[in-house]
Design a protein that fits this description.
Elements: E1 9-15, E2 21-26, H1 36-55, E3 79-81, E4 86-91, E5 97-102, H2 109-125, H3 139-149
Subcellular location: Endoplasmic reticulum; Golgi apparatus, cis-Golgi network; Golgi apparatus
Protein name: Trafficking protein particle complex subunit
Keywords: Endoplasmic reticulum, ER-Golgi transport, Golgi apparatus, Transport
Protein backbone atom coordinates (compact mmCIF):
# COMPACT_ATOMS: atom_id res chain seq x y z
CA UNK A 1 0.00 0.00 0.00
CA UNK A 2 1.35 3.41 -0.92
CA UNK A 3 1.69 6.14 1.72
CA UNK A 4 -1.03 8.24 0.08
CA UNK A 5 -3.51 5.34 0.29
CA UNK A 6 -3.27 4.99 4.06
CA UNK A 7 -6.61 5.36 5.82
CA UNK A 8 -6.17 7.10 9.14
CA UNK A 9 -8.03 9.19 11.71
CA UNK A 10 -5.82 12.13 12.67
CA UNK A 11 -7.82 14.00 15.32
CA UNK A 12 -11.19 14.66 16.93
CA UNK A 13 -12.42 18.01 18.22
CA UNK A 14 -15.68 18.54 20.11
CA UNK A 15 -17.20 22.03 20.17
CA UNK A 16 -19.99 23.02 22.56
CA UNK A 17 -23.10 24.87 21.37
CA UNK A 18 -21.52 28.24 22.23
CA UNK A 19 -18.49 27.56 20.02
CA UNK A 20 -16.06 26.65 22.79
CA UNK A 21 -13.62 23.79 22.40
CA UNK A 22 -14.43 21.17 25.03
CA UNK A 23 -12.31 18.27 23.74
CA UNK A 24 -9.43 17.74 21.36
CA UNK A 25 -7.25 14.73 20.85
CA UNK A 26 -4.75 13.66 18.21
CA UNK A 27 -4.82 9.96 17.33
CA UNK A 28 -2.16 9.74 14.62
CA UNK A 29 0.60 11.95 13.30
CA UNK A 30 0.08 13.56 9.93
CA UNK A 31 -1.39 16.98 10.57
CA UNK A 32 0.72 20.00 11.43
CA UNK A 33 1.06 20.39 15.19
CA UNK A 34 -1.15 23.14 16.59
CA UNK A 35 -0.87 24.72 20.01
CA UNK A 36 -3.86 24.98 22.35
CA UNK A 37 -4.61 28.57 21.29
CA UNK A 38 -4.77 27.51 17.62
CA UNK A 39 -7.27 24.78 18.50
CA UNK A 40 -9.44 27.34 20.33
CA UNK A 41 -9.32 29.67 17.31
CA UNK A 42 -10.14 26.80 14.94
CA UNK A 43 -13.15 25.78 17.06
CA UNK A 44 -14.53 29.32 17.31
CA UNK A 45 -13.97 30.07 13.63
CA UNK A 46 -15.58 26.84 12.47
CA UNK A 47 -18.54 27.42 14.80
CA UNK A 48 -19.16 30.83 13.19
CA UNK A 49 -18.75 29.59 9.62
CA UNK A 50 -21.02 26.63 10.34
CA UNK A 51 -23.74 28.96 11.70
CA UNK A 52 -23.48 31.24 8.66
CA UNK A 53 -23.60 28.31 6.25
CA UNK A 54 -26.83 27.13 7.91
CA UNK A 55 -28.46 30.52 7.34
CA UNK A 56 -27.46 30.83 3.67
CA UNK A 57 -28.90 27.43 2.86
CA UNK A 58 -31.06 27.75 -0.29
CA UNK A 59 -34.80 28.06 0.31
CA UNK A 60 -36.54 24.71 -0.18
CA UNK A 61 -38.63 24.30 -3.32
CA UNK A 62 -41.19 22.22 -1.44
CA UNK A 63 -44.15 23.77 0.37
CA UNK A 64 -43.90 24.36 4.13
CA UNK A 65 -44.63 21.27 6.26
CA UNK A 66 -48.16 20.57 7.37
CA UNK A 67 -49.09 21.23 10.99
CA UNK A 68 -47.94 18.35 13.17
CA UNK A 69 -45.12 17.41 10.80
CA UNK A 70 -41.52 18.22 11.57
CA UNK A 71 -39.56 20.47 9.29
CA UNK A 72 -36.25 18.96 8.24
CA UNK A 73 -33.53 20.91 10.07
CA UNK A 74 -31.03 22.74 7.91
CA UNK A 75 -27.46 21.65 8.23
CA UNK A 76 -24.32 23.68 7.93
CA UNK A 77 -20.98 22.56 6.61
CA UNK A 78 -20.74 18.79 6.78
CA UNK A 79 -17.35 18.21 5.18
CA UNK A 80 -14.25 20.11 4.09
CA UNK A 81 -11.72 18.26 1.98
CA UNK A 82 -8.18 18.97 0.79
CA UNK A 83 -5.54 16.82 -0.85
CA UNK A 84 -4.06 16.02 2.59
CA UNK A 85 -7.05 15.66 4.94
CA UNK A 86 -10.82 15.59 5.23
CA UNK A 87 -12.71 17.30 8.04
CA UNK A 88 -16.15 15.85 8.74
CA UNK A 89 -18.61 17.69 10.97
CA UNK A 90 -21.51 16.10 12.81
CA UNK A 91 -23.82 18.40 14.75
CA UNK A 92 -25.99 16.85 17.45
CA UNK A 93 -29.55 17.92 18.19
CA UNK A 94 -28.21 19.83 21.22
CA UNK A 95 -25.79 21.87 19.08
CA UNK A 96 -22.57 20.07 20.01
CA UNK A 97 -20.29 19.64 16.99
CA UNK A 98 -17.88 16.77 16.39
CA UNK A 99 -15.04 17.56 13.96
CA UNK A 100 -13.21 14.48 12.74
CA UNK A 101 -9.96 14.94 10.82
CA UNK A 102 -9.05 11.97 8.61
CA UNK A 103 -7.01 11.12 5.56
CA UNK A 104 -8.96 11.82 2.33
CA UNK A 105 -9.02 8.08 1.62
CA UNK A 106 -10.77 7.20 4.90
CA UNK A 107 -14.15 5.65 3.99
CA UNK A 108 -17.43 6.17 5.84
CA UNK A 109 -16.33 9.20 7.86
CA UNK A 110 -19.96 10.02 8.63
CA UNK A 111 -20.35 6.61 10.27
CA UNK A 112 -17.07 7.00 12.17
CA UNK A 113 -18.02 10.43 13.56
CA UNK A 114 -21.49 9.19 14.56
CA UNK A 115 -19.86 6.30 16.45
CA UNK A 116 -17.69 8.88 18.26
CA UNK A 117 -20.94 10.61 19.24
CA UNK A 118 -22.33 7.32 20.58
CA UNK A 119 -19.17 6.81 22.65
CA UNK A 120 -19.57 10.41 23.91
CA UNK A 121 -23.13 9.61 24.97
CA UNK A 122 -22.09 6.42 26.74
CA UNK A 123 -19.09 7.77 28.63
CA UNK A 124 -19.55 11.53 28.96
CA UNK A 125 -23.26 12.35 29.00
CA UNK A 126 -24.08 9.39 31.25
CA UNK A 127 -21.27 10.34 33.64
CA UNK A 128 -22.90 11.93 36.72
CA UNK A 129 -19.76 13.99 37.43
CA UNK A 130 -19.65 15.67 34.00
CA UNK A 131 -21.11 19.19 33.69
CA UNK A 132 -22.58 20.01 30.29
CA UNK A 133 -20.68 22.50 28.12
CA UNK A 134 -17.51 22.08 30.19
CA UNK A 135 -14.20 20.57 29.00
CA UNK A 136 -14.33 16.78 28.82
CA UNK A 137 -11.95 15.03 31.18
CA UNK A 138 -13.32 11.49 31.35
CA UNK A 139 -10.66 8.77 31.26
CA UNK A 140 -13.08 6.02 30.15
CA UNK A 141 -14.11 8.20 27.20
CA UNK A 142 -10.46 8.63 26.19
CA UNK A 143 -9.86 4.88 26.39
CA UNK A 144 -13.01 4.02 24.42
CA UNK A 145 -12.18 6.54 21.68
CA UNK A 146 -8.60 5.31 21.51
CA UNK A 147 -9.80 1.73 21.22
CA UNK A 148 -12.11 2.68 18.37
CA UNK A 149 -10.02 5.20 16.41
CA UNK A 150 -6.41 4.06 16.84
CA UNK A 151 -5.44 1.52 14.23
CA UNK A 152 -2.81 -1.09 15.16
Amino acid sequence: MQGSDVKVVFALLIINKAGGLIYNRTFAPGLQKLDSNDYLILAGTFHGIHAISRSINPAPASPPPLPGHRKTPTTGIESVESSHFRMTCFQTSTGVKFLLFTSPEQPNTDTVVRRCYEIYGDYVIKNPFYSMEMPIRVEKFDRALGGYLVRP
